[in-house]
Records
---
Amino acid sequence: MSSNASEGSFYFDLSGPFVNRFLRIGYFRMIIDFLANSLMLVIMGTVAWKCIRLKLLRTANHAVYSTLGLFFFVAWSQMLTCHSCWLAKSFWAYILHAVLGALAMWTGGMGILAKILDKRRENKKFSINDREGHMSSKHSRCGLVGFLFLLFCVLTGVVLFGVHRAKLQLCHRTFGLFSFGCLASSQWFSFSTVFARREWNWLWIRGLQLSTAIATVLVGYEELFHIVQDLLEYFK
């Protein structure tokens, strides 16, 4: 913690040697990037392989598009282009960040639409009192909230192309982090659904949930540090 006696103000400095040396630069950060990317590829590959074997029918269609758009592309947009050791702060990082954000919205939207249409078809087989609601699980509720945050993130990102304001940038990054947190939670809950329990045994499910939790922390911690730093600088 740093202080300024003349102004009588105190503020926390998060740019200490541990954060800067071990979490932002150097080999340790490269290892974190490698682990995060590896875990996301394992999760995406496992879900995609299962869904392709099911010929992308019904829930499999929703699962592969949602995992690709609302977990994989969102995570890459946040980590690979904003804080990666290889791309961060370069011109191509900003371009790739925008492309991945657009792909996340488009692909994730396709996944959500596929599930809505599938549930409508299923509900036609039952009476009105026996039909299942659209937002009846933690998986679906987290997914919807995360998608709304993603929408706000994309909209603020579009405005940032023409208007560069610190407050708007902070809103954009905060929406992005909240979006990824909610969507990662939805991904975690998805491995407890009937579809997941039918297609994988309990050991696979626990492994996928653990991989999702670890990947979420490895992807999101850096953005959280930046947002906290920006807030402390703003109120300093």
Note: The chain is about 75% helix and 5% strand.
---
Amino acid sequence: MTSGPRPRGAGIRIALDTLRVRLHVIHERCASIDAKRWSEYRAALDAGLDELDSELTRVTEHPDPEDLDELLYPHLTRLELDAWRVRATHIAGTSEPDSVSLDLIAYAHRQLDSQHSGTGLPRGDLERIMDAIRDSIPHAGTGHGPR
């Protein structure tokens, strides 16, 4: 059986589904965040999703569907990093934010910005940093943010 080129929308659906799952995991860890902080995060997430909508319009006009994932990766990763920043800043039962995770998050943001100019880490290295962030932030309760 031979496989032909991937359908044009498949890469976008996979990337968006991956983001949905990752945000769900983060939101499950945010039950203890106060309503004000959660509201601020949700407003920023809504703005980020609006930007993503514009980006999707732009990238779907790109002639090479194989590059769509690469074109969306920075924006999707920023949305995930923003969620992790909220989680790392507001860990239940502590008065201090998780500075190690926040440092990793800030580093990952800088690398994404540097990738735009061609000087950032390769994607594989950035993914290892993202994995470290995902593994470093503790769970806290269940639910999707404050009720």
Note: The radius of gyration is 16 Å.
---
Amino acid sequence: MSDARTAFRLVSLRSEPAVPPWLAARLLEPGVPEDFLDGHYTVLDVARFEEGAGLGRVSFGNAEWGGRFQIDLDDLKIWVVNDAGNLYPVNSSLDQFSECVRVVTECWPDWSAVDDFDYCEVIATRIRDEIVAVDDFAMASDTESFWETFYSDVRIGVYLE
């Protein structure tokens, strides 16, 4: 997967009837990211309402390592909820999530051409700076966040071949 790069693209996501109409409309237009680096995140076929604390959550994507990307209906923040029910912060809104996916996709290198481990730190710092410029919530958590984990993986060379 180290050289897997996909173009950033928003797609319309249909919703099941239990999804609030205002959110269903937002998921259709402008839509949600289709994919992130060939599988870190993939869009669901249909957005699903999930009961839970407060007003509930709406699932809109799958996480590569298990779990779902969800919108919390109480505060509209984006979370990854794993199969055990643990919450991992992602972004402060769906718009910020889409923008973070876009900026990271645009600055993602062709790792097959990289043979210098020091470059990992350079690109990780660039990615972190781009994410924070879009949404500081994405990296400002006391708990392990989706973007912080991604940044750490890039920094330690996970994507080098």
Note: The chain has a mean pLDDT of 88.
---
Amino acid sequence: MDQKKKPRGLKRSLAKDKPVAPNSEGGEVAVAAKKAKLDKPDLEEPSRTVALNVDEEDQVAVLRSLYDTAVEKLDADDIEAARDFFRGCIHECDKILQIHNGVIPKAEVENAEASNQMATPTEPLAPEFHLLYGSALYQLGLLSASDDEAESGSKESDSLESFLDTALERLTTGLDAVEEGKVGENGPDVFRRLLVAKAKAQLHRAALWLPENAQTASQKSEDAWKLLNDAYSFIAEPNASIDGAADDTAKAMLDVAQIFLRHAELYTSDQGGCKLWAQRAVVLFEAIISADPPHFDAHVGVGASLLAEANSLLEEDEENCDDAVPLLDKSLKALETGEKLAKTDTGDDDEKIVTLLCLMGECLINKGNLTDEDGSEDDEYYTRAIACFRRVMKIEDALNASEAGAVDDRPKEVASYRLLPPQFAEFVDEWEKDMLGGDEEKDA
């Protein structure tokens, strides 16, 4: 290509911070309110009615079912349904909390029988209530931020800030309830999940202070680190190891490593912060690999973490950044290992291979941009990147074909599946135009 392409980082949607169900290790957790009425984000009334296969007298079971359903919808990329179920969970939590605090007299509750089942002010709300409340607020905030970014092109969102602040208040109340001995069943497990959930929400909140208030962001991030350390002591070990540990410990380490990676990726203008969190992620991913060498997600995690650190350097000086080269080399090696594992172990797992291919293509573009222009080495990197992106496009076309019949008969603008980020699709288009232009010059 005649002109080097500026590195374009993969814009990772906040909505893809997919939650772990609240009954699983490392799951997200929520909070209870200390007061009846709070300044919280505007929420539309839930618009779906669903039959829940749970005991309606068990308030927490009802909330858990709503939240789990929302998570399932989110995992299935049914964003609208997920949003409705998160809203429904929050709506029910609001009502329970207001009745509990006497804001809504029981006599005014529409269903008198249901009102008799509500908690009374003398009965403390279960910590898991706060867990589900805060988790739903957190997840809905991420979805709202994704919508705001799509509309305005900006990641800064007053809506996200409001959701996160409210979720953090709920989570803190839940932790206070546990510390006061109101643990109920599965107390230690709920306490740990509350710690993890609050840490995740606090890390997202800290990132919103960047770059204007880097000192506050750093302090809040370290507070989140302490919460995670309280939940899982292994994160502070210089040579973390899970050899011989139970499967749930390995899963917890993967969850925490991915939290660190996502936080590192949010540091677009703070190279020091990105390096700190990316290296913390790498330590845990490598510990997983040490115990389980063919672990696909851990190898991809190492590659993504190193790529995030390299990208933060390139943001500072994209034309002359020698420090980024070894990071990119290590990232590419880890991703190539992941690609081999995907071929042998995961088969045609489209979701996994798409993420890997996008990361690998981005890494190769950066390698090409940092290669001397004399010679064909840079073109070799670009060619490999194009091959990665075309594989993603092929998967995208196949998915659209299976949904709509024939891809050729389906307008591209109404395709349901868009797996390749726009900046990479643009790179492919520019490459193809350059190649076509070169061929025409030869013919002339």
Note: Residues 1-212 form one domain.
